[in-house]
């Protein structure tokens, strides 16, 4: 028993110190700016450190009942994760087919379908190549590179998903002066889509809630220009929709020039500055999957504001999150390109 204590004492103390440090670091990071991938990285390592620390504590206590209960709990959590991982390719394909039936047949809407097929084709392809050309150094090298890339992408997927969860925890205070509503495409060039309508309704609900709680009026900024296939600017259509759903017309500003999220934030900021608004007293609304990236653009133009997201249909959420994930990767393409080169180099060194 004493030997067990002596073996576990130092690792347990170190684990407790590390867990405390990571917890405090995460608190500071989220408090300063929750819309960073660094928050997701630290959050994942914090969760891992709690798991390791709890395991060490239970081993240190050496109580059979506690250890058995803990083992059962870990198994209960692990089984669904293992099963979902094992059938992930088929789940992606199923989701892709659902999106294909319900949405437009654009490349952005078939991402889960493509990923599902790749998860099946790539392993089968390497298996066949190894069968046809056994002991081929080239195939082994390509397989090593593929494995490294999958693990690298998985790390950033988990980071992004945790960052997404952190953004969902935000609840704005009812002391705002404005709400920026980010536009999206119009149906048939004139009508607000259900997705865009949910963003507008979220802003209206916040406007009404703040008026009820504090008596203060909140100005809505409808932000969206006119696309090539649209008959009027999104901002105009959004204002019309908002008025029809109970928002006072005199409390709505319109940005009808912006073509993307960066311009949504930039032109909305210009409108607000012209009218003397306190730029720190505001939020923005968009779809929940888009909040993280949109907040980055807000900070890029000097708007240090938070966002709230309208709920996305469950069938569409995986596809939407993958699109956001790819967009975030592309925002840091130089870094990821260098990491890709490093992966190839490491694979070559292992190969040699």
From TrEMBL:
UniProt keyword Transmembrane helix present: yes
Keyword Aminoacyl-tRNA synthetase: no
Residue ranges annotated for the DUF218 domain, each copy included: 178-327
Residues spanning the membrane: 6-30, 37-61, 67-94, 106-129, 149-170, 335-351
One GO location term (cellular component): plasma membrane
Protein name as catalogued: Integral membrane protein
GO biological process: one example: peptidoglycan metabolic process
Originating species: Fructobacillus tropaeoli
Keywords: Membrane, Transmembrane, Transmembrane helix
Pfam family, one: DUF218
Highest taxon of the lineage: Bacteria
